[in-house]
Amino acid sequence: MRWIKNLYYWTLEFADKKYNALALSVISFAEASFFLIPPEVLFLPMATAKPKKAFFYAFLMTTCSVLGAIFGYWIGMTFWDALSPYFFEYVFKQEQFAYVKDLFNNHSFQTVFVAGFTPIPFKVFTVAAGVVATPLGVFVLASVLSRGMRYFFLAALFYFFGPSIRTWIDRNFEKATIVIGLLVIALIVAIQFLRP
What we know:
By secondary structure, this protein is mainly α. Helices cover 81% and strands 0% of the residues. Helix 4 (54-90) packs across helix 8. The N and C termini lie far apart (53 Å).
């Protein structure tokens, strides 16, 4: 859709501004609850220009994304009945949301973690967590771990390999996060089964 492409380019324009770190923080917050463009769109050119600041950018993205996730949780808990028509029209389908709600019934931590670490739209899960009243502590812990691992992994690639890593990231990063996310979940499940 054209308006999403325009939104993408509008977000990208902040990369070379003096206040780009503030823009990155705001977009990280908003993306976790309602905004459609992920903060990596802004992070990639910023980290390419200043790879030694990649960990600082990762810290901003993690902190603001978790705060945005809590905001999304609050939206779901407080305003879902009023806002659901907007979400179903512009953000996600009703069938997708019903599936997400079912996931939370038995696998709250795993569901939030996978959504936060992989390319799955995080906002769907933050709002859904509020709608079904997922325990807030579990929700925040999973959000901190998943967002932190995702963004600091990305930052480490830039910090240690420099701007040349961007081509690899553009081609492989999302696949890598899916594989790593699934491995972490498999480890969590294995630990639960191996407990005496």
